[in-house]
Design goal:
The chain has about 180 residues and is an alpha+beta fold. The chain is built from 5 helices and 9 strands. It has one domain. A 7-stranded mixed β-sheet has the order 4-3-5-6-7-8-9, with helices on both faces. The radius of gyration is 16 Å and the shape is globular.
Length: about 180
């Protein structure tokens, strides 16, 4: 059983099914052929920041680049890309209907999947992980972690702003298949 709030639990199967449904609604479970991570989708990437704070603009030139694979019709993915840019990251965004193949190549566990996948600094970033948590991961550079995830579509996470924000965990998925809470939000 997985604790979702004090006094409430769900089975892992129910959580995985909910995440798969949320990801499918946003293009994360495409069923289509996936592009190779090394060969981005045919559409040209969008990496120019739209609006950026002066501090973020100054940091952009030296910032790591996040390569994002997302469904072209997903608005929350686009909002997360903008969150990363406004936080000073360089972002190359690739629209594709084959996000699942990228997730498979990056080792993202089924139960941790969300609607888009980013690759940065040798790590996979799955879903709506806050920029400051990605910076922490890159700063600490743990060797046993393959990536971070915010599974599902959590209201209140970057790109999923809205009424009644929820507390959520940023999950680390390890190279040996384990998962653990990396940060509580």
């Amino acid at each position: 059983m997985l604790s979702i709030a004090p006094g409430r639990t769900l089975s892992r199967a129910a959580v995985a099914a909910a995440f798969a449904t949320a990801a499918a609604a946003c293009g994360g479970s495409s069923g289509g052929e996936a592009p190779q991570a090394a060969a981005p989708a045919a559409q040209a990437p969008s990496s120019a920041p739209a609006t950026q704070s002066p501090a973020a603009a100054a940091a952009t030139a030296d910032a790591p680049e996040v390569v994002v694979y997302k469904d072209p019709s997903c608005g929350c993915c686009t909002k997360w890309v903008e969150h990363m840019r406004q936080s000073g990251f360089r972002v190359a965004s690739h629209d594709t209907s084959g996000v699942d193949g990228i997730k498979d190549q990056a080792g993202v566990p089924q139960g941790a999947r969300s609607c888009h996948t980013g690759l940065v600094g040798g790590y996979a970033i799955e879903g709506h992980v806050p920029a400051e948590v990605v910076r922490r991961l890159l700063r600490e550079h743990p060797g046993d972690i393959a990536g971070l995830a915010v599974p599902g579509m959590v209201t209140g996470s970057p790109g999923m702003e809205g009424p009644n924000p929820q507390h959520y965990d940023v999950i680390a998925f390890h190279k040996d298949g384990r998962t653990s809470v990396y940060e509580k939000r």
